[in-house]
């Protein structure tokens, strides 16, 4: 039996596009981000949800809480959906990272790179796919929203499609977007990528 996994990127927060927030800080959604989350929650609830899983990070939890509330559910924290551990880069401005050769190497060789003091993309991919597959196995036939982060979702999609991790920046995962994956004992298939409201 097939489960439907809705990989949801959290809605917008104040540091989006300016700071590599990572796992650091207690950064909430902006008012615009809360509106994104509420609109997304209404849309997903109308389609039917059986469970909502979330990264432990605040911006993901706030997005998940809106989705779960609209569906009459409680969200479950899933460490496998956590943001990448960016180690020493956590909390740095992108403008400051731009001149760092290690940052350039990370972005050009994601399959081989490691954030300083952090984790590899291979490790990220293993944990997010393990979370997805366990949920599909334990909740066959269910529709499960999983709120996570852009590159974590990219890693999952690359794993399902058999793409090398070096290609994960070849497609977008926007704030408050949904990527649908069908998953079962037979494997996984990407049904849609980066669905945006409106």
Question: What would you say this structure looks like, in words?
Answer:
- 37% of the residues lie in helices and 18% in strands.
- With 198 residues, the chain is of the alpha/beta class.
- It has one domain (3-174): Phosphoglycerate mutase-like (Rossmann fold, 3-Layer(aba) Sandwich).
- The longest helix has 18 residues, at 121-138.
Spans of 5+ residues with little confidence (pLDDT < 50)?
none
Query: Using only CA atoms, what is the Rg?
Result: 16 Å
CATH superfamily: Phosphoglycerate mutase-like
The total count of helices amounts to 6
Largest sheet: spatial strand order: 3-2-4-1-5-6
Please write the CATH class name: Alpha Beta
Helix content: 25-40%
| Structural class designation | alpha/beta
Proportion of residues in extended strands: 15-25%
Shape: globular
Q: How far apart are the termini?
A: 31 Å
Looking at the overall shape, the CATH architecture is 3-Layer(aba) Sandwich
Mean pLDDT: 94
Number of domains: 1
CATH topology: Rossmann fold
Provide the descriptors you would attach to this structure in a database record:
single chain, Rossmann fold, 6 strands, 37% helix
Short structural summary:
By secondary structure, the protein is an alpha/beta fold.
Summarize the helices and strands and which ones pair or pack:
Layout: E1 3-9, H1 31-47, E2 51-54, H2 58-71, E3 75-77, H3 94-97, H4 101-108, H5 121-138, E4 143-148, H6 150-161, E5 178-184, E6 187-195
Parallel strand pairs: 1-4, 2-3, 2-4
Antiparallel strand pairs: 1-5, 5-6
């Amino acid at each position: 039996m097939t489960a439907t996994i809705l990989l949801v990127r959290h809605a917008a927060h104040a540091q989006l596009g300016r700071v590599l927030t990572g796992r650091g800080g207690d950064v909430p959604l902006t008012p615009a981000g809360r509106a994104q989350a509420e609109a997304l929650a209404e849309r997903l609830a109308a389609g039917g949800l059986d469970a909502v899983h979330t990264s432990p990070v605040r911006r993901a939890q706030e997005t998940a809480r809106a989705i779960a509330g609209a569906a009459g559910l409680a969200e479950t924290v899933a460490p496998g959906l956590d943001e990448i551990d960016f180690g020493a880069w956590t909390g740095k401005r992108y403008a400051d990272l731009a001149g760092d050769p290690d940052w350039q190497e990370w972005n050009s060789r994601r399959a081989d790179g490691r954030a300083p003091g952090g984790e590899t993309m291979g490790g990220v991919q293993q944990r997010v796919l393990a979370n997805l597959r366990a949920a599909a196995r334990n909740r066959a036939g269910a529709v499960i929203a999983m709120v996570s982060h852009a590159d974590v979702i990219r890693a999952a999609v690359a794993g399902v499609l058999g793409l090398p991790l070096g290609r994960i920046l070849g497609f977008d995962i926007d704030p408050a977007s949904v990527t649908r994956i069908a998953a079962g004992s037979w494997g996984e298939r990407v049904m849609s990528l980066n669905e945006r409201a409106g």
